[in-house]
Amino acid sequence: VQLQASGGGVVQAGGSLRLSCAVSGRTFQAYDLGWFRQAPGKEREFVAAMPWRGDRPRYADSVMGRFAVSRNKDKDTVWLQMNNLKPEDTAVYYCAAKTDSSPVTRISGYTEWGQGTQVTVSS
How crowded is residue 22: how many other Cβ atoms within 10 Å of its Cβ? Predict the structure, then answer.
């Protein structure tokens, strides 16, 4: 499966952005989709995830109440709506897919990664 993330940009604190991740390839296969981010000098971290089987979305505590993840009916596009952005949200954002049964919050379970999109929040 191939993943293509887009929608990043520069925004002022308090603003909003919507990231998209287009999924192509073996879309008939069940997979969980996750969003991760990596800031300069920091490790890549979990942001949000949408499980394949309709379980509730999962969010990192740092974005709870501000970010929302959703998936279209055909399950070939996933979005990350980011509201009330803060300077600490500045990072490269990646979408990723996995097919195993590991928790959707666990980065090691994801085997397919998109190229990343830069989000910069100015104060």
Answer: 14
C-alpha dist (Å) from residue 69 to 47, 53, 77, 85, 111: 10, 15, 11, 15, 20
Q: Return the amino acid letter for 18.
A: R
Return the residue matching tokens 């085997």.
111
CA distances from 98 to 12, 20, 102 (A): 33, 17, 9
pLDDT digits (tens, 9 = 90+) for 5-64: 999 999 999 999 999 999 888 765 688 999 999 999 999 999 999 988 767 899 999 999
Residues composing the chain: 123
Q: What DSSP line would sit under the chain, residue for residue?
A: -EEEEE--EEEETT--EEEEEEEESSTTS--EEEEEEE-TTS--EEEEEE-TT-PPPEE-TTTTTTEEEEE-TTSSEEEEEE-S--GGG-EEEEEEEE-SSS-TT-GGG--EE---EEEEEE-
* Residue 9, both tokens: 């940009």
